[in-house]
């Protein structure tokens, strides 16, 4: 997702998708002195790497630009001119360089340079002009000036096949085209407006096949095919998956093909639909037919074809007892997401094979949609896939907030208004770190905004270090004291003379006596009383975030005291507070600080039965208590129709409250 620009002096500039400069690094002094003759960017399991051929005909490598470690490869003896071609290989977790000089091949690893000979290489092959390594680094192709093509494994221990090409001039590009776990292998070569594919498959490409291109094009090899990019078009060349071949080849009698025809005839109200179905069922191949249609739908790019295949699968499922629906449902979900991101306005043309490798976090996290700043779509997809908030929505909102801070959101607004706007959007969403957003604001020179954002950070341990970094010692100490953590308070340099007994004591004494008491509890490791202290302190907080933060501190202390009941009760109180805040926002009525009993009762009195039911399930209110609560509230409200409906829903565990009703 980043653009790497490698300059002649070995400086690598990195830009994002919007051509905004991110950072730069150097490939070392040797490259600086001898300049870059040729450079290649490559990808391995360790990340993105850069390989440089210098003017001194030496190679320098960086296997991971995010964890820069430069390697200078061994010298090739007697090399006086640049190699005719070279490539980077990844074998057994080691990155090596293969280069060709005339008819000789050299392999450079960390310590040595060795001459290698591919097995079964024709003696009359001539000098090597091009080489290509497959996307998974398992296969190697060599093109010689006689038109001879050798295809084998990168280990150079096995030959797959060889060809004599009718064109002897070096192709502009040579790349592999293959699918994961497929035995069909092909190499694609590009000359001026001409494409040639060679392979040895009995079912796919066998021999050489030529294609004429309308424009000058560039080839991009990928996991399951080759992208062909020109000024006006973007095409994808790939092996047709077996399921698609079975269904769409001419005169196919495969079960998937028959099921597709049956569904089409059914829509025409033709009796042929029954004939096709009987033929599949007689062979007991209906489950296979449904599976074929589901699989083939995934490999299609046109939504109409996808729908046609999925309709056929749905039609076939009706005639199968207990067909597991998971594969069908998952395919519908995947295709809906893929079609959304393939839209030309989004521009991420992933194939179905590539999509599982992205997974939820990859596609929606920093690497794809979020880096394109497509926040609404990313959030909608998260919600559609039902990803957890921490894995999905929280990450997206945090990225959005950092972007807004960096872009100087609200230049005409005060820092307090900007911080409030961000808090309104993020709230107390799980996984959101206000300290990270504040750190980004501070890095952008907006110190006051960073301080305002830190007020929404419930964890004092995250507030204090950043405040100290901003040289706000008094505020850092104040936050540390509020947290009740004496270790944290001790980090802050004190602005007043210190007491001989404790560096923090003078500051604690400025507060109420309870603060001194808290200090004593900390010294004695009295976690039970510390938990009680934090619960008491939480009710002096005006903001809900502060109250939740104090209660969370109480939970931690109760767990340290091994008081599981108090910890669980406090966690329930935190959950209730957050729900009450949402209820208050949704219905514009005061719900905060009501007991669970009163909250449920008020919801029923106001007619919000679904919300009341939600609290009953989430807090596991006993049936007897909930029935008493609901019947009493309905009687007070005079809602006899709802009471009758509720009484018929299931048997009452408490009888019926005739006296209350009267």
Automatic annotation (TrEMBL):
One of its GO terms (biological process) is vacuole fusion, non-autophagic. Belongs to the VPS16 family. GO terms for cellular component: endosome membrane; HOPS complex; lysosomal membrane. The keyword Coiled coil applies. PANTHER family: VACUOLAR PROTEIN SORTING VPS16, VACUOLAR PROTEIN SORTING-ASSOCIATED PROTEIN 16 HOMOLOG. Core component of at least two putative endosomal tethering complexes, the homotypic fusion and vacuole protein sorting (HOPS) complex and the class C core vacuole/endosome tethering (CORVET) complex. Their common core is composed of the class C Vps proteins VPS11, VPS16, VPS18 and VPS33A, which in HOPS further associates with VPS39 and VPS41 and in CORVET with VPS8 and TGFBRAP1. Interacts with RAB5C. Interacts with STX17, MON1B. Associates with adapter protein complex 3 (AP-3) and clathrin:AP-3 complexes. It is a peripheral membrane protein. Residues 1-330 form the Vps16 N-terminal domain. Residues 259-286 form a coiled coil. This is Vacuolar protein sorting-associated protein 16 homolog. The lineage of its organism: Eukaryota, Metazoa, Chordata, Craniata, Vertebrata.
């Amino acid at each position: 997702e980043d653009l790497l620009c490698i300059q002649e002096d070995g400086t690598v500039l990195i830009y994002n998708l919007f051509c905004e400069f991110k950072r730069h690094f150097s490939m070392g002094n040797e490259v600086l002195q001898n300049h870059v003759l040729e450079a290649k960017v490559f990808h391995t399991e360790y990340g993105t790497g850069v390989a440089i051929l210098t003017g001194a005909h030496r190679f320098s490598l960086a296997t991971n630009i995010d964890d820069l470690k430069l390697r200078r490869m061994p010298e090739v003896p007697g090399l006086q001119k640049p190699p005719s071609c070279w490539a980077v290989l990844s074998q057994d977790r080691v990155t090596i360089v293969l280069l060709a000089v005339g008819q000789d091949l050299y392999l450079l690893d960390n310590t040595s340079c060795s001459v290698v000979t591919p097995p079964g290489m024709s003696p009359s092959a001539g000098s090597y002009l091009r080489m290509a390594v497959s996307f998974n680094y398992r296969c190697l192709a060599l093109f010689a000036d006689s038109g001879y093509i050798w295809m084998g494994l990168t280990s150079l221990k096995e030959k797959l096949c060889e060809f004599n090409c009718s064109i002897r001039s070096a192709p502009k590009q040579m790349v592999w085209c293959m699918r994961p776990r497929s035995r069909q292998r092909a190499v694609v070569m590009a000359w001026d407006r001409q494409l040639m594919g060679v392979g040895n498959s009995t079912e796919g490409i066998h021999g050489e096949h030529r294609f004429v291109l309308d424009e000058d094009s560039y080839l991009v090899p990928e996991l399951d095919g080759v992208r062909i990019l020109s000024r006006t078009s973007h095409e994808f060349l790939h092996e047709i998956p077996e399921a698609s071949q079975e269904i769409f080849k001419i005169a196919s009698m495969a079960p998937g093909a028959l099921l597709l025809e049956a569904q089409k005839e059914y829509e025409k109200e033709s009796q042929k639909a029954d004939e096709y179905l009987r033929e599949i069922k007689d062979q007991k191949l209906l489950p296979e037919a449904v599976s074929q249609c589901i699989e083939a739908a995934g490999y299609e790019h046109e939504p109409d074809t996808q729908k046609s295949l999925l309709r056929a699968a749905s039609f076939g499922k009706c005639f199968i007892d207990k067909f597991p629906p998971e594969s069908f449902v998952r395919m519908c979900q995947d295709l809906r997401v893929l079609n959304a991101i393939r839209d030309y306005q989004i521009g991420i043309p992933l194939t179905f094979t590539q999509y599982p490798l992205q997974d939820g976090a990859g596609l929606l996290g920093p690497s794809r949609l979020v880096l394109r700043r497509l926040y609404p779509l990313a959030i909608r997809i998260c919600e559609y896939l039902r990803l957890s908030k921490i894995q999905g929505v929280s990450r997206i909102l945090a990225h959005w907030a950092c972007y807004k801070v960096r872009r100087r959101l609200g230049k005409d607004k005060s820092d307090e208004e900007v911080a409030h706007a961000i808090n309104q959007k993020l709230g107390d969403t799980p996984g959101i770190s206000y300290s990270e957003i504040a750190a980004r604001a501070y890095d952008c020179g907006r110190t006051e905004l960073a301080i305002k954002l830190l007020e929404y950070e419930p964890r004092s341990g995250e507030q204090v270090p950043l405040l100290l970094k901003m040289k706000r010692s008094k505020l850092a100490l104040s936050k540390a004291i509020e947290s009740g953590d004496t270790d944290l308070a001790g980090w802050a340099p004190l602005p007043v003379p210190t007491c001989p007994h404790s560096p923090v004591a003078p500051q604690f004494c400025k507060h109420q006596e309870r603060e001194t008491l808290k200090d004593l509890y900390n010294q004695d490791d009295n976690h039970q009383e510390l938990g009680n202290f934090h619960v008491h302190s939480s009710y002096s907080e005006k903001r809900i975030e502060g109250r939740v933060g104090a209660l969370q501190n109480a939970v931690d202390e109760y767990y340290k005291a091994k008081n599981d009941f108090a910890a669980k009760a406090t966690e329930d109180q935190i959950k209730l507070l957050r729900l009450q805040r949402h209820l208050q926002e949704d219905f514009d009525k005061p719900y905060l600080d009501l007991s669970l009993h009163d909250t449920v009762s008020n919801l029923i009195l106001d007619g919000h039965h679904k919300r009341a039911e939600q609290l009953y399930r989430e807090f596991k209110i006993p049936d007897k208590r909930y029935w008493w609560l609901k019947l009493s509230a309905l009687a007070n409200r005079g809602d006899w129709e709802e009471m009758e409906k509720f009484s018929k829903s299931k048997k009452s565990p408490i009888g019926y409250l005739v006296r209350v009703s009267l």
